[in-house]
Amino acid sequence: MAEPELIFFYGTLMLPYPTLGHLGVERMLAYQGWDAVAGRLYSLGRYPALTTEPGSVRGQVFELTDPAALAVLDRFEDYRPHDPADSEYLRKLLPLAGREAAAWVYVFNRPTHGLSPVPSGDWAAHQGQTLEWDDFFTSRTVE
Fold it and tell me: N or C, which terminus of the chain has less Cβ within 10 Å?
């Protein structure tokens, strides 16, 4: 049996942000829990950017139950598979820290000079959302 295809969100695509619902892909994904990937997080103001610099970034893992979600997410993240040089983000498979699996992650494809780092690597905490989010997920069952 094939391994499930996973995707890792570290910013405004995480729940309980409403972005997944607005994009119409929430039903194409099954929440699998919190995890981390190697990388460094920067603030772009309203949303973050992950780079492959040394560090750790906390986020949420989802199983892709419908692969059509990737096309929608690619457009949202400005990832153009046929034009990566002009894409704001690239979609890359990165190993997850807490499980023996890799997940798709949107990696920032622009220079980071002048951007504000998020030292904790945790966008939820950076936004002051940690307790609310922890409460949300202790009551949510994995689909």
Answer: N
Residue 91 lies in a domain: yes
Backbone angles phi, psi at 19, to 5 degrees: -60, -45
Strands, E, within 84-141: which ranges? 89-95, 102-108, 116-117
Rounded-to-integer distance, Cα 139 and Cα 104, Å: 26
Q: Using the CB atoms, write b or e for 130-141: b if 16+ within 10 Å.
A: eeebeeebeeee
Cα(126)–Cα(105) distance, rounded to whole angstroms? 19
Mean pLDDT score, 68-73: 96
pTM above 0.70, yes or no: yes
Domain range holding 86?
Answer: 6-138
Q: Is 1 part of a structural domain of the chain?
A: no
3-state SS class at 68: coil
Query: pLDDT tens digit string along 71-81?
Result: 999 999 999 99
Does residue 88 belong to any structural domain of this protein?
A: yes
Q: Which residues, in sequence order, are bridge partners of residue 34?
A: 60
Instruction: Please answer whether residues 93 and 70 qualify as being in contact, where contact means their C-beta atoms are separated by less than 8 angstroms.
Output: no
Domain total for the chain?
1
Residue 69 lies in a domain: yes
Give the strand pairing for 48-64 and 6-9: antiparallel
